[in-house]
Amino acid sequence: xxxxxxxxxxxxxxxxxxxxxxxxxxxxxxxxxxxxxxxxxxxxxxxxxxxxxxxxxxxxxxxxxxxxxxxxxxxxxxxxxxxxxxxxxxxxxxxxxxxxxxxxxxxxxxxxxxxxxxxxxxxxxxxxxxxxxxxxxxxxxxxxxxxxxxxxxxxxxxxxxxxxxxxxxxxxxxxxxxxxxxxxxxxxxxxxxxxxxxxxxxxxxxxxxxxxxxxxxxxxxxxxxxxxxxxxxxxxxxxxxxxxxxxxxxxxxxxxxxxxxxxxxxxxxxxxxxxxxxxxxxxxxxxxxxxxxxxxxxxxxxxxxxxxxxxxxxxxxxxxxxxxxxxxxxxxxxxxxxxxxxxxxxxxxxxxxxxxxxxxxxxxxxxxxxxxxxxxxxxxxxxxxxxxxxxxxxxxxxxxxxxxxxxxxxxxxxxxxxxxxx
Length: 422
What we know:
Helix content: 10-25%
Strand content: 35-45%
Largest sheet: 4 strands, antiparallel
């Protein structure tokens, strides 16, 4: 003990760097002096955190490591989350068209209006009307612009005000002939992408100038377009450095399109858009939410397995099996992916967390059978089990025909983090 105290800090760090986090924690219990010395070795705790995938820039790396370990243990035991729900009085669940999470709030598209509730207290925060019946909602990556796809083929965009929780109309886009099924709004590119089932035999993907509303390009899909995502050149997820990209999923496949960046143009040379060699076949039976992106990798579901594919080489990185065949990918981070798993015939459903590095199941958590409109909340913790705060939203979904206050009704069910002391 005295020998450790007598060593310079460089040698203390060198010796302790050979120990894993669990051993370091046990060593701090040996004596007060050891606890003081080892707890102060920030570089050692930083290395331990990075080895476990807990890495985020923090001041107290030991506290960060202990907090992440405790949270991971709670996740594995299924004791990290709590369930909350409430029954709105002004509409039925069957009226809900889509749900998104924004700035600590749930936004629900209901016929021709959008209702907003704060997750922390489930109190209504705002209601604003839109000109046409809603089919889908999409919030931009920077959380400032809301895209609304309508039943009649129109699209509207709205500027969201975080302070006053309200929305102001930005632009209306007309070009589709039927339901707008999916949207991706990218203010950094001045672009918006939309997918529609324009007719029984003609499905389209359209690219728009976000600011002016001008239709820039129309692509034909082989099936009902279910998901679109825009990737700016050189971005975290883009497979190309000098080309903007578009990922689009229909009922049976995922395709990658790209076009070159053009000097003086915010959105590049759209006229030269072309399909890449990447074409992924996916199950027709799985949810319309076909894929997630993480660091130039695409994640999708195939035959009850979660597959991770490299967007650059088109090579499969890893593949891991899930408990059920019907899996919805909710959100992913650098370390973990959050999914819901369904067994429709038995009305069973679970929320699950998988470790992307090795495909191991971290834990599963029972959730009510809310098959439609399930949305992820705060997802920062998926980068390494850090950044979560008590009562913050993990996931939410609508449930139909639930016994609430002695009567069957529709409820919004929320899964939030438990307070740390419970």
